[in-house]
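thought: user wants a sequence for this fold. calling inverse folding tool.
action: design(structure=
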C-alpha cells in the first residue's frame, strides 16, 4: 500500500482551515497543521484528536524556515494563516504586514525547498476596495486599509515566487465566508461572530448603517472545497474569486437570526455590496456552491453555543474599537 500524500494547512485550527483539514482527511490525505492559536482553536480539530494522519504544531508561521520538518514530503500547501480581523489593522499595520506578508514569504520558502506540487493562497476580495459589482478577477486593485494591503502583498509574493522560482501557486480571493467555527477572538470584526454572541446574550444586533448593505456570503464547507480543488487541479498560476454569487443583506441575516436591532454609523471605506463573479472558478474547477444561505445560517444557529465565550459588543465598545478607523478613513486622500 502506498503512503498517503501529505498536505500542509497553515491556520488549520482556524475557521476555514479546520474545514479544509476535514475535507483533505476525507480525501485520504495525511494533514500537517500549523497554527499559533491566535484565532484558531484546537477544539476545531477535536474530531481528529486520535487520528495519526493529522499532525498539529502550535507555532507562528514566521518560525517556518527552508527545510522545516513539517514540510518534509509534502505534496500540497493550503495557506490560510494570518491575521484576519479587518478593523484592528488600522491601528496595527506593521504587525499585519509582518504576519500576512513576511509570514507568507516564510511559507513560500519552505514550500519551495520542499518541492511541493502546489501552493494555494487564501487571498481577500478586500484588495478590490470599493468595487464595481459583480466583481471579476480583472477588476482594478485598490486596497483601502492595511489588512487589505497586507493580503494583496501576500498574494503578489506568491506569484513572484512562481515567476522567479517556478513554485506552482494558485490564489483564491475569498469574499464573505461564514459558518461553524468562525472566529471568537477578542477583536471587533466579522458580523456573524458579533451577532451570535449578541443573540446568546439577548442583546440587540448592532447593525451598521441601514442594513441594506449586501455581502456575498459563502458557507465554509463550500469555501474549503474550492481550495482543495484549486490545490488538486493541474492548473497553476491562476486567481479565482470565491463567493456564492448571490449577495444577501445584513437585514436578511438579522431576519434569519431573529432579534431586535440597534443601528450604528456607516463606516467609511467599506462597500455597500460585495458580489463575486464566479464564472471563472465554476468553469476551471467545476466548483459550485452547495449550501444555501438559509441552510447555512441554520447550521450556525444549531451550534450557537460555540460563540458563548466570544466578546459581547455593544454600541459604546464598538465606537471605541472603530474610533481610529473613522479618524483615518474619513479623511482618506484619494
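)
observation: tool returned 334 residues.
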Amino acid at each position: 500500500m502506498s503512503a498517503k500524500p501529505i498536505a500542509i494547512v497553515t491556520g488549520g485550527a482556524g475557521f476555514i482551515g479546520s474545514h479544509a483539514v476535514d475535507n483533505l482527511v476525507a480525501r485520504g490525505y495525511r494533514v500537517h497543521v500549523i497554527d499559533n492559536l491566535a484565532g484558531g482553536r484546537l477544539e476545531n480539530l477535536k474530531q481528529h484528536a486520535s487520528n495519526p494522519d493529522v499532525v498539529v504544531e502550535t507555532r507562528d508561521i514566521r518560525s517556518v524556515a527552508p527545510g522545516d520538518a513539517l514540510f518534509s514530503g509534502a505534496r500540497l500547501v493550503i495557506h490560510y494563516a494570518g491575521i484576519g480581523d479587518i478593523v484592528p489593522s488600522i491601528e496595527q499595520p506593521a504587525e499585519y504586514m509582518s504576519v500576512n506578508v513576511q509570514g507568507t514569504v516564510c511559507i513560500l520558502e519552505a514550500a519551495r525547498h520542499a518541492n511541493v506540487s502546489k501552493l494555494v493562497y487564501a487571498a481577500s476580495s478586500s484588495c478590490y476596495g470599493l468595487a464595481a459589482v459583480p466583481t471579476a478577477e480583472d477588476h482594478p486593485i485598490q486596497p483601502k486599509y492595511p489588512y487589505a494591503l497586507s493580503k494583496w502583498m501576500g498574494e503578489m509574493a506568491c506569484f513572484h515566487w512562481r515567476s522567479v522560482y517556478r513554485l506552482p501557486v494558485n490564489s483564491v480571493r475569498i469574499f464573505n465566508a461564514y459558518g461553524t467555527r468562525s472566529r471568537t477572538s477578542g477583536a471587533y470584526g466579522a458580523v456573524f461572530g458579533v451577532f451570535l454572541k449578541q443573540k446568546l446574550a439577548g442583546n440587540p444586533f448592532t447593525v451598521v448603517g441601514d442594513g441594506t448593505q449586501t455581502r456575498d456570503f459563502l458557507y465554509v464547507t463550500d469555501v474549503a472545497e474550492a481550495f482543495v480543488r484549486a490545490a488538486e487541479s493541474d492548473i497553476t498560476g491562476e486567481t479565482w474569486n470565491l463567493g456564492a454569487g448571490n449577495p444577501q443583506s445584513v437585514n436578511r441575516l438579522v431576519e434569519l437570526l431573529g432579534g431586535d436591532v440597534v443601528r450604528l454609523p456607516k463606516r467609511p471605506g467599506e462597500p455597500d455590496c460585495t458580489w463575486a463573479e464566479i464564472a471563472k472558478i465554476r468553469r476551471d474547477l467545476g466548483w459550485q456552491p452547495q449550501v444555501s444561505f438559509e441552510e447555512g445560517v441554520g447550521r450556525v444557529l444549531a451550534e450557537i453555543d460555540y460563540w458563548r465565550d466570544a466578546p459581547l459588543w455593544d454600541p459604546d465598545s464598538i465606537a471605541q474599537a472603530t474610533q481610529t478607523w473613522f479618524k483615518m478613513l474619513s479623511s482618506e486622500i484619494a
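thought: summarizing for user.
answer: Here is the designed sequence. The longest strand covers residues 118-124.
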